[in-house]
Predict the structure.
Amino acid sequence: MAANFSSVPVLDFALVSDNATKPEFILQLRHALINVGFLYLDNHTVSQKVTNDLIDYIPRLFDLPQEAKNQIFMANSPHFLGYSRLGAEFTKGKTDYREQFDFATPHETQWKPGAPEHLRLWGPSQWPDEGLIPGFKNTMETYLQQVQALSYQFISLLAEAFGLPSDALNKFYDADKFMQHRGKVVKYPANDGSLTDQGVGPHYDAGFLTFLLVASPHRGLQVQNLSGQWIDVPPIPGTFVVNIGKALEFVTRGLARATSHRVLSPPVGSTPRYSVPFFQNISLNACLADEVLDFPSEILQLKQLRGDPVQTDSVNFAEFDREPSGKVNLIGRVKSHPDVAQRHYPDLFAQYFPNGLPQQVSAY
């Protein structure tokens, strides 16, 4: 296992802006994609002011009256957007101790009666009352749109790192008005002594890329290396933590690594941990099993040198070999939020929960 890792590499995005240093960035990116599946991205293009403004809003968002949170409860939304209360999800049979809001980039749903159900997965966000937290919606949407722009630029660099033309992955995205990308604002409460340490259990992400903003100075994120050991990913101010999702792993035939990861709750006596993950989606109708990417032989050899990881603790998003991307994502959301599925997707709910609403659900 020559390519095993004990830390997550830090990449300097400023290298991309100079033709003399860009090849160095591409080489470092190639290593991170194939051997690690995670990286820190420093000196990125997202405004520090916008980021700081968002971080300032986060405690106020969670301090809203419970009644205000409940008004945008996720079960109201067929798009799985809105508020999720503390302890509403489970991973691998254990409670995930996090409270969260799901928001997304602006989008008018393309679904119409008779169309595939997975087209309903994208649509307008639910926002808290502007009078209770003025300016938050604008700040969050500005942040999401800036990370979206960065993610598209990053995808072209991924293609180059794989030895492909810079536009080789563009076919997995639709025109902007038909795309939507999702963000979460997450609070992991400090352990009061009565909780397990599971903020969220071991899992993979679904799409191509995730950009994580760690919005407080807490440790907690861990990734699983090739031999199955859990490696800390401590916060580095000013960076994003970027990781590979199962869709990119599948379409690259395992060349890129989707790495199992988890979050531990803040310890007893600590303060809450906050984070803002951004999930870059691909087209809802993308059928990854039909796509073949022709990688240079010297790039494919790097996968052989890496070897295969041991069995990880994560098992989610395994349907890309037979379903369009949107259906795979919808199945994942149905499994993690059966109350939403029961209200808005009754047929899928009956398929996955034939005995009715479960007391515990699996987030992944």
